[in-house]
Structures are given as structure tokens and as C-alpha cells.
Design brief:
- There is one protein chain.
- By secondary structure, the chain is mostly beta strands.
- The protein folds into 2 domains: 110 residues, 2-Layer Sandwich (TATA-Binding Protein), CATH 3.30.310; 79 residues, SH3 Domains (SH3 type barrels, Roll).
- Helices cover 14% and strands 38% of the residues.
- It has 3 helices and 16 strands.
- The strands form 5 sheets. A 5-stranded antiparallel beta sheet has the order 1-7-6-3-2, covered by helices on one side.
- Strand 6 and strand 7 form a beta hairpin.
- Helix 1 crosses helix 2.
- The protein is elongated and about 60 Å long.
- The termini are far apart.
- The relative contact order is 0.15.
Amino acid sequence: MLAKSAHTWRFLTAAPPREVFSVMEQLLGIPPYRFEVLDDHRARIVEYQRRGLFGGWGRVRLRPRWVSCEARPIEAGTQVTVESSTGGVLVAKAMGRADRGPITRGLQLVKLLTAGIADSRTIYRERRIPPGPVSLVASWAGTPYALFTEPRYDASRGAEILTATEIQALPGGTGTFVHVSLGDGTEGYVERDQIVAAPAISTREAQADAAAYV
């Protein structure tokens, strides 16, 4: 049986659900928590290890702590609900360290997704993408991104791409969209905050070096 619910945060974000869950997995789904997909709109992290009185890690057998997230697209953006269980900061006396509880982890996700573009820690910081190789921002569980056929949100969608798809940014994009070409010659438009400049070739590994590009 899981720990009881303690706090809930509801807000609107510009990030699509695929990016919300990708950020959640990378930011929160690390030991001693495990990331779990519940359905197309929900995911959570669940505590599977806990530090004992003498500092060692052991399996959680009683009321694991958790943080859940629900992300649903609406006309204004993505409606996000983040919920965390009870369980504050547990101090492991033998190690002299504090174990971050679920409330702290839930707030990390809320703060990141609601930060403005001027905040250097936000995933929405302004990116100036020059012509050349680019890489799609990591997607949750391999969810594809459909290219826009024109540089506007009401345009039809075209070819679908994944993170490791070969993509070249072309001149002639707008403030919000980047004009791109795929390896097979297909052209379209990608939202600027959905790609990063790749230093050599567009692969998943290239993102780690290019994510700080501004």
C-alpha cells in the first residue's frame, strides 16, 4: 500500500505532454525512486529503496512514497496536475545526510515547468538555432513529433520524427518555428523550443553537449 496523498499542484504549461513526462523521468525518476508509466496521460515515481537507521539502503516494505503527474493537452497549452504523498525529509543519523522527500521532488517539477524564459534553469529558455544539424528534444517513451507543414500552429502536421532523426535547420524560420529538412529531403517546421543545435550529427547523445546552447 502506498503512502497517502499530501499535496496537489495544478497549473498550465507550454510544454507538450511528451516533454513534461520526459523531464519528470530525467529529473525525478532516479534512485531511490523508480519512474512508472500509468497510461497515456499519467506517470509517477515510486520509492523502492529507503535508507535505514544505520545508513544502509534496503527495500521499502511499508507505504512507499511517490509523486504522480497527469498532463493533458488543451487549447491553451498542457494542463498539468502534480501530486505528492506524505513523507517529509528523513534524516539518516548514521550517514549524517538528508533524504529528499516526495514533496521536495514534486516541487522541483512544478518549479521547472513554471519558470519563465529568463530563468537560466528553465527548459523554455530562448534558443537561437543557426542553420546546421539539430536534434529533437528527448521525448517520453519514444513519442514522435509531427512536423508542421507551415510555420503556424493551425497548419496541418506532416512527417513524424524521433529524437535520433537526422535533421538540418534551414534559413528562413520564424521567431517561433525553425524550418528544417530531414535526411530524405522532407521539409517542415519545428517549434524552436523542441530542438537543440547539435555539434556534429543529430543523435540522442549529441543533446548532452548541445542543451546549454543559447
